[in-house]
Specification:
Order of helices and strands: EHEEEHHHHHEEHHHEHHEEEEEEEH
Shape: globular
Helix content: 25-40%
CATH topology: Beta-lactamase
CATH architecture: 3-Layer(aba) Sandwich
Largest sheet: 7 strands, antiparallel
Strand content: 15-25%
Number of strands: 14
Domain Beta-lactamase-related: 18-362
Protein name: Beta-lactamase
Radius of gyration: 19 Å
InterPro entries: Beta-lactam-related (IPR001466), Beta-lactam/transpept-like (IPR012338), Beta-lactamase/esterase (IPR052907)
Organism: Pseudomonas rhizosphaerae
Amino acid sequence: MQIQGHFELQFEAVREAFAALFDNPQERGAALCIQIGGETVVDLWAGTADKDGAEAWHSDTILNLFSCTKTFTAVAALQLVAEGKLALDVPVAQYWPEFAAAGKQSITLRHLLSHQAGLPALRDLLPPEALYDWPRMTAALAAETPWWRSGTGHGYAAITYGWLVGELLRRADQRGPGESIVARVAKPLGLDFHVGLADEEFHRVAHIARGKGNVGDEAAQRLLQVTMREPAAMATRAFTNPPSVLTSTNKPEWRRMQQPAANGHGNARSLAGFYTGLLDGSLLESEMLAQLTQEHSLGMDKTLMTSTRFGLGCMLDQPQVANATFGLGAGAFGHPGAGGSVGFADPEHDVAFGFVVNTLGPYILMDPRAQHLVRVLRGCL
């Protein structure tokens, strides 16, 4: 396999580990970028980007980053908090009056960002096309009764997070949520990152497909059993309502949409650059960064049925939990995306890490491919 890009010699073992991913014949394309102290020490890519394996992965290939998007969204929200346009502990209904319905009058932005609001799913089934109808989705969430009382537990809002936080961005910043995030987070740092992708960029987007034959870890199997056997369960609804959630990633309308929970498009470089921007203070003042990375939720996740630990819109490391550690240090924070992509920062080592892949693994939190690359990286530091 031809590995493109460059690396500092100190990190040759990381390059070898990256190349070894492609020993698996199912692996199609991937990219890895590691920055230390703001300097790029590894920037690699390899494999194929298209559906048929005919087109090489290029330096400027981008792909759907799924939930890696959530932290970009949280940072835009925290910038608005710093500007006084939003507040973490004021009821959401103050900005979005309809949201007060069904006992939600005391839910705050802090609850939304830390997955404590009790709104990871909608009970009433929606048609597939509702996914692309922003007013319909936000109206449905404004009318929804929480699955639990806010602040009494947490459950990952896999896709609803995008409409909930995105609607507050839209109201506070007077523009589409994706436009707000890109203008505030991507443009200032020169990141190749998009929430609502222009049609003229589609030719650069890698086709995403699932790997076959791997059933994943216990957490993945648990969630799969529930989604197959209990159609009305909260966890099932969280991933399958609207039913188009799981089947849309390669569709033009998904790419165009501004869904800031799950449809950011970028590459390993944009993930690493984003986390460098958090480490060096470019994106948030220290007070807001402290809010982002402070533990808000810890323990059994009501949606994912595995232990999760969240700050505000980012996942915090759980060093003792195999599927929930980034693998570098207890102070690491970031976010995995469905199927294997991940971006995170480790303040202790001043490391910003981005890994993207277009063959999806079946894991719920961290993908073992990324974790292995981090273990090798740790050995090089």
